[in-house]
Amino acid sequence: MNIVMLVFERITVLDVIGPYEVLARLPGAQVKMVGPERGVVRSDNGAVGLAADLAIGEVSSADILLVPGGFGTRLLEKDERVKAWIRDVDATTRVTASVCTGALLLAAAGVLRGRRANTHWALRERLRELGAVPEASRVVRDGKYASAAGVSAGIDLALALAAELASPEVAQAIQLGIEYDPAPPFDAGSPERAPAAIREAVLGRIRARDAELGAG
């Protein structure tokens, strides 16, 4: 099973590493980290580096294409070469998936037109602007397209794909193996339940980072 994960500058690390820890455990899985160019890319705060062992020009197909999110997707939405590559690889996939703002990049590439999808709650309506149909579910499936909400939801998406691509038993074994048994100390993981002041603080940080990238 050929699994291709796009990595890029200003990526949110858990968006790609969470799904990786699940999908890499599938029987026969071969995971490739692919970037616009070969080399190390840095996380959205610059603290962590991930190695892109292959450049997009070296990869033309995948069984599963996973596009994670991060502030770097704002810049890639304007990168015609990356968007053309997404369209070309998408034409070969069994599943095309995204985590967080990766869905915005898929939509900008044109592959989610008219499809239901989700992304980070703060940016969900941008999916509509890009031709997709926003849906506020943690994992959304429409045909071969699978999209997760923000960041940590990528693990849920990957477990759902593991159940589909292998079996529910394999997915449960992976879940137990990584001891994914979330019990957060606060009930603030969704905008509906988080205190208003917390929600506004998060929105403020996101808007400030977008402004830095000229993405408004």
Point out poorly predicted stretches. Answer: none
Q: State the major sheet.
A: 7 strands, mixed
**Overall tally of domains:** 2
- Distance linking N and C termini: 39 Å
Could you give the count of β-strands?
11
In angstroms, what is the radius of gyration? 16 Å
User: Which class do the helix and strand fractions yield?
Assistant: alpha/beta
Overall, the morphology is: globular
Put simply, the count of helices is 8
The CATH homologous superfamily name of the largest domain equals Class I glutamine amidotransferase (GATase) domain
Physical arrangement of strands within the biggest beta sheet: 5-2-1-6-7-11-10
Q: How would you characterize the overall build of this protein?
A:
- The chain has 216 residues and is of the alpha/beta class.
- It folds into 2 domains: 2-182, Class I glutamine amidotransferase (GATase) domain (Rossmann fold, 3-Layer(aba) Sandwich), CATH 3.40.50; 184-216, no CATH class.
- It is 37% helix and 19% strand.
- It has 8 helices and 11 strands.
- The strands form 3 sheets. It has a 7-stranded mixed β-sheet with strand order 5-2-1-6-7-11-10, with helices on both faces. Strands 3-4 form a two-stranded antiparallel ribbon.
- A hairpin with a 2-residue loop joins β10 (139-142) and β11.
- The chain is globular, with a radius of gyration of 16 Å.
